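Protein modeling request. Please complete all fields; requests missing the sequence field cannot be processed.
Requester role: graduate student
Desired output: 3D structure, token encoding
Chains: 1
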Amino acid sequence: MSWNSIIGQNKLKEQLQNIITNNKIANAYCIYGNQGVGQDAIALEFIKSLLCKTSPSNSCGKCKNCEMISNFSHPNLNLLFSMPALKSVKSKENGNNSEQTYSQSEKVKKEVHAQLKIKSANPYHTLQLEDANTILIEQVRDMQKNFISLSTYAEGIKFVLILNADEMNDVSSNALLKILEEPSKNSTFILTTSRIENLLPTIISRCQLLKCLPLANDAIKDALVEKYNLSEENALLLAKISNGSFTNAVDLHSSNLDELRNKALKSFEVIINSNTREVIKHVQNILSEVDKNRNLLKTRLLLIYYLIRDLLMLVEETPSLLINRDFKDELEKFLIKSDSDSCQSGMNLCESTIELLESYVYLPLVLNSFAIKLKRLFN
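Delivered output (379 residues):
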């Protein structure tokens, strides 16, 4: 892996290469942007480029340092990400004080190992651990005690990489803030997030901000063709409905896209044309189908967004711009209930609902509200 393996983000790559060349490494960085546009991949490449023995500023990907960073085993790299709650193991006597110790189950350890193996092969992969939604205070304390405060046998900067840093709770956030307020020599923190607004302002103020932009359709298409051997036509369709996110595009590719698109069309049809009771029943069916999987639910809403976007193209008499061209006949049936305002409002509603799903809201309430509001827009 080298900077060439990063999809898009040319301006940011150039900025980071200049930082490396000029040897002006900050104490903390926050790499932010929409979900799936490369924050983690960029962070890892930045670390590799700084520690690579063979090719400084553009990692070789083959030396021992590069390989160890890629598989998250380098002694100068400490990785933090959301974990399930720790279980108390025993009380450890320490002089007159007793110190409680904590541990994860073997099942969780195996799950973490499997997820890191996937991310090692694909830095754009989002770690998925059951019941893991918070970066724990114990993780931050352990990082400070057993990584930052200790020396390692390896040369170079020590890096703390915090994935989805917005998933820290108030306690772990304040613990990290205290560490950042008293920076350790030769240590650099890199926070990645798709929800920078959920980070403490005081943490943000101590980081150099690095923004990842949404990816261009062509960049996503080319990456899908290269990495997944897709046809250009299928890759372009995935790129167009991925909302500028390579991770979204890969998730859609891993699913049965045609089935997902048909289900989205059915949902849109039921919401617009059925009575309120049938709409609520359909929402219940969706919730049973996705079984609390927010990513599946976000995908359904994203596909509905692009159906409404195509409907807007038909309203404005620009059918050549359709994404779901095979749905043209079905979408034309909604023209009698549609105008530019209703379509634009419907797209905005999809976007705001998808944003809500990023937080821990009550899914039935959010989805019922979405369906009723969408129905009103087109009736």
